[in-house]
């Protein structure tokens, strides 16, 4: 699967498992989880740089 598909799947899982969260909260939680898995690190800076590279234009 591509990274975007993995992120969307993770977002869907968070939304289904935690329906009390608002959509923005679920998206941020899914992005953080995805970043931790992809980088193998829970460091905020490392995860933020990965997400920045995915959402910013080249």
Radius of gyration, CA atoms, in whole angstroms:
11 Å
Low-confidence stretches: none
Average of per-residue pLDDT values: 84
The number of distinct β-strands equals 0
Q: What's the order of the H and E elements? A: HHH
Structural class by sheet pairing and helices: mainly alpha
What general form does the structure show? globular
Largest β-sheet summary: none
Helix content: over 70%
* Approximate strand percentage: under 5%
Count of DSSP H/I helices: 3
Compute the separation of the termini in Å.
Answer: 21 Å
Characterization of the model:
With 58 residues, the chain is an all-alpha fold. 76% of the residues lie in helices and 0% in strands. The protein is built from three helices and no strands. The protein has helices at residues 3-17, 23-39, 44-55. Helix 1 packs across helix 2.
């Amino acid at each position: 699967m591509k990274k975007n598909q993995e992120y969307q799947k993770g977002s869907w899982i968070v939304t289904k498992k935690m329906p009390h969260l608002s959509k923005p909260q679920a998206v941020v939680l899914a992005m953080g989880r995805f970043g931790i898995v992809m980088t193998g690190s829970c460091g905020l800076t490392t995860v933020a740089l990965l997400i920045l590279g995915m959402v910013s234009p080249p």
